[in-house]
């Protein structure tokens, strides 16, 4: 089953809702509030249900003040918005959830129960309008709002709240053909506003794409936005935005309209939210024009009145957020859809799952808006959505990142502006489990004080890490971690605490990822036979589908012992359109190997963020099944870091069997030979700076330097005493090489560009690469120039201490790095020492 909103499911799964809303929406010529089709979720898998009682939350406390707006960031979207949306209840109860009485009842309930905690938006979703006026602008439904929508808006505003409405891209052909005059634009009509030849404007086909080469088109958008401003509208959800909404091949493209609406709504101080599942390849575009954007399909399960959502619809957000987290921040927010945790009788989640969902929304800095009937929140739901410490995590506006998604016991963390960490320990598995966070994995060295935010109590100091015991199935522990005295905090270049001025890019070929290269040793034991010829070497490395370095997004399954000729007799598979896998590698080529079968369809291939090809994995039924098929291959890439991403486009299934990577060789040879009967050392040269060789290991067990191997200059000598311990046959030794911290950097080519970092501590270091194309930088502490550092080097080095200062007073400091020469400056890490806990 597909995860996008299929027309079949639209017709079958929500007929009542659709019939009601479409009757209201598609009055002659209207196309502004079309009702979206539901989102069929991927096939659910059996799961255990937790009956554990959650730790009671502390007494509700008012939400803290919002994080201050950063330079160049609008106060409107300085923090994720909080509120309520009608759509979940529209689905749950068949569509009649946007009447005047319902909206005012929700507004009153929010005012009484939630408003003091920061909730303020009442958003009316699809189906609110009943036609259009003589200028082609929307008219509210008289059936839903017999006293006028303005009466509802006035009621919401009287409660000191904000009100939102719903629109979609495009214009109907009928509206265009009527040649209606455009308000405030003499000489302009709706005629000739459609792009020629006609192109579908939205997923459902209600309208056609607008032509922005015609200046009257922008004036038409302006006329509607200004009308909304006159009504007092504070928020617009713009649905069926492409690329995204299940369509990313640019056959539909709403970007020009997004830009036009953005400018028109901004002038009217209206929040602009994009929907749904927008394409991450255009993340920078969405950030330029919107205040928020949906990153996945609808959270609703379309289960009728049985439930609002399911655990599967929450769990699939974890891999999605592993892609999206760094795009959220004060410039705009990653939207996870409605948070449906307010009433256990309708949520479709256990208590533990409800708390996990609330935690995920909070730690992701996602818009925190509820989908339940606010007049009918249960006691536990009210505790979840009014916990002041958890709301503070959300409103701090710092999306959490995962340590790894290659486990069911996931650690997500964010470094807050005050130097504390927020850490969430998620149990996505099927049994209660102990979950450990190692301080080193989140950039902390030393001890720290730990507080449980849901329980509202301190848990004491912990050295090196913390273990949460017996985290329940689909449960979570949410921690505040405060670095202790003399602890050292490492801050990556993509932290929101690093401030960039000038022209900077993230990665774009400037980074070097940590990498390993295999070296094959042919081991024999042939008396008098001499040393055999080394095995045929190669720079190709095969990664099985279960390799932990492959990142899966969306809902994926794993199947082994299939007996169908798969590599290692296993595959990963997905049924969800939009699901993807991604792998970042250091090399010059890669092959995507999978199965071909009648059940499979098209897969979009992205290389380094660009769509390069759509490949077919479909096979005619008469041809049966073909295993280990290379459906995409690229070679002769520039040496360096590259990322392959494959996204399911169609078909019932998409599979991954293996990836074959052509390495950018770090060694002078890829193989050697050893005869136990005539033992001798094996020497191989390192083609990188030898300081970048971090380890040699066999089967995950490190070799001991100066015992199992030695390094002299660029030559690595494998000791015969170690080689003699290897069994006869081919053995693989993995040579590990350093990379930039977490595999990423920020870079600039413009002299005068700078990066600043504010901290409270007694010592600070700036750590990053040296390279032949780099030059000098000026270093400032608290506004005073203290050093000029040369970052040039004959070879590319990572993790070099470029500047360090200690003995500082224990107060707030700012370090600033300014590029003064060289082709490029790369920024990677700031590290500082905390004198005492905050």
Compute the average pLDDT.
89
SS-based class:
alpha+beta
The helix content is 10-25%
CATH architecture of the largest domain: Alpha-Beta Barrel
| Beta-strand proportion | 25-35%
Low-confidence stretches are 1-73
CATH superfamily of the largest domain: Aldolase class I
Radius of gyration: 29 Å
The CATH topology of the largest domain corresponds to TIM Barrel
Overall 3D form: globular
Largest sheet: 8 strands, parallel
**Strand runs, count:** 50
Total domain modules: 5
Strand order of the largest sheet: 9-8-7-6-5-2-1-10
Q: What distance separates the N and C termini?
A: 50 Å
Q: In DSSP terms, counting alpha (H) and pi (I) runs of 4 or more, how many helices? A: 16
CATH class of the largest domain: Alpha Beta
What brief labels describe this structure?
single chain, 838 residues, alpha+beta, TIM Barrel, Jelly Rolls, globular
């Amino acid at each position: 089953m597909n995860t996008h909103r299929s027309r079949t499911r639209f017709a079958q799964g929500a007929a009542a809702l659709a019939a009601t809303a479409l009757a209201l929406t598609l009055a002659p010529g209207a196309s502004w509030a079309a009702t979206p089709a539901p989102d069929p979720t991927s096939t659910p898998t059996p799961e255990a249900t937790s009956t554990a009682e959650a730790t009671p939350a502390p007494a509700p406390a008012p939400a803290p003040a919002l994080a201050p707006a950063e330079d160049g960031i609008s106060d409107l979207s300085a923090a994720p918005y909080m509120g309520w949306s009608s759509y979940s209840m529209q689905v749950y109860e068949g569509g009649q959830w946007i009447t005047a009485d319902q909206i005012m009842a929700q507004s009153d309930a929010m005012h009484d129960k939630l408003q003091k905690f920061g909730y303020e938006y009442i958003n009316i979703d699809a189906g609110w309008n009943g036609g259009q006026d003589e200028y082609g602008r929307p008219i509210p439904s008289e059936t839903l709002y017999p006293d006028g929508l303005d009466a509802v808006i006035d009621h919401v505003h009287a409660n000191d709240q904000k009100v939102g409405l719903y629109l979609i891209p495009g214009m109907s052909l009928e509206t265009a053909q009527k040649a209606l005059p455009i308000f405030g634009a003499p000489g302009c009509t709706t005629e000739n506003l459609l792009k020629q030849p006609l192109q579908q404007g939205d997923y459902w086909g209600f309208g056609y794409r607008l032509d922005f080469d015609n200046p009257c088109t922008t004036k038409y958008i302006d006329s509607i936005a200004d009308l909304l401003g006159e009504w007092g509208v504070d928020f617009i959800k713009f649905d069926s935005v492409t690329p995204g909404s299940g369509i990313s091949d640019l056959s539909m493209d709403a970007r020009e309209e997004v830009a036009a609406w953005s400018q028109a709504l901004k002038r009217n101080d209206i929040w602009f939210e994009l929907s749904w599942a927008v394409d991450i390849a255009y993340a920078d575009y969405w950030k330029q024009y919107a205040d928020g954007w949906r990153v996945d399909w609808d959270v609703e399960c379309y289960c009728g009145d049985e439930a609002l959502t399911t655990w599967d619809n929450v769990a699939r957000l974890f891999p999605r957020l592993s892609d999206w987290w760094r795009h959220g921040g004060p410039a705009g927010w990653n939207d996870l859809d409605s948070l449906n945790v307010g009433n256990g009788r309708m949520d479709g989640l256990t208590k533990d799952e409800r708390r996990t969902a609330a935690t995920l929304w909070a730690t992701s800095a996602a818009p925190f808006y509820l989908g339940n009937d606010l007049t009918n929140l249960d006691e536990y739901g009210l505790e979840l959505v009014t916990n002041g410490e958890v709301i503070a995590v959300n409103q701090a506006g710092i999306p959490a990142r995962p340590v790894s998604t290659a486990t069911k016991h996931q650690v997500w963390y964010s470094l807050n502006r005050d130097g504390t960490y927020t850490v969430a320990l998620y149990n996505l598995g099927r049994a209660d489990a102990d979950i450990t966070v190692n301080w080193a994995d989140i950039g902390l060295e030393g001890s720290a004080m730990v507080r449980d935010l849901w329980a509202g109590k301190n848990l004491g100091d912990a050295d090196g890490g913390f273990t949460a015991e017996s985290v329940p199935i689909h449960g979570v522990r949410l921690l505040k971690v405060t670095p202790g005295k003399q602890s050292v905090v490492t801050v990556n270049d993509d932290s929101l605490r690093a401030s960039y001025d000038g022209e900077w890019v993230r990665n774009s070929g400037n980074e070097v990822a940590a990498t390993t290269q295999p070296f094959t040793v042919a081991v024999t034991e042939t008396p008098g036979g001499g040393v055999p010829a080394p095995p045929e070497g190669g720079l190709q490395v095969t990664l099985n589908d279960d390799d932990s370095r492959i990142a899966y997004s969306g809902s994926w399954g794993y199947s082994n012992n299939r007996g169908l000729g798969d590599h290692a007799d296993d595959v990963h598979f997905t049924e969800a359109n939009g699901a993807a896998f991604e792998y970042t590698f250091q090399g010059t080529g890669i092959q995507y190997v999978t199965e071909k079968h009648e059940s499979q369809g098209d897969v979009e291939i992205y290389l380094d963020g660009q769509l390069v090809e759509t490949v077919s994995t479909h096979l005619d039924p008469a041809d049966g099944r073909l295993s280990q098929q290379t459906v995409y291959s690229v070679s002769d890439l520039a040496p360096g870091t590259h990322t392959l991403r494959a996204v399911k486009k169609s078909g019932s299934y998409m599979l991954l069997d293996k990836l074959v990577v052509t390495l950018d060789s770090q060694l002078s040879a890829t193989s050697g030979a050893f005869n136990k009967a005539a033992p001798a050392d094996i020497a191989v040269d390192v083609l990188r700076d030898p300081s970048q060789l971090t380890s040699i290991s066999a089967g995950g067990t490190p070799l001991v330097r100066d015992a199992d191997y030695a390094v002299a200059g660029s030559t690595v000598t494998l000791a015969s005493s170690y080689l003699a311990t290897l069994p006869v046959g081919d053995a693989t030794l993995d040579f590990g090489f350093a990379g930039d911290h977490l595999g990423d950097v920020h870079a600039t080519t413009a002299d005068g560009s700078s990066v600043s970092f504010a901290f409270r501590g007694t010592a600070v270091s700036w750590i990053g690469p040296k390279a032949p194309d780099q030059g000098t930088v000026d270093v400032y502490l608290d506004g005073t120039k203290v050093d000029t550092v040369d970052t040039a080097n004959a070879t590319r080095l990572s993790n070099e201490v470029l500047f360090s200062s200690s003995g500082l007073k224990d107060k707030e400091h700012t370090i600033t790095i300014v590029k003064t020469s060289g082709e490029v400056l790369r920024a990677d890490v700031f590290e500082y020492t905390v004198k005492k806990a905050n």
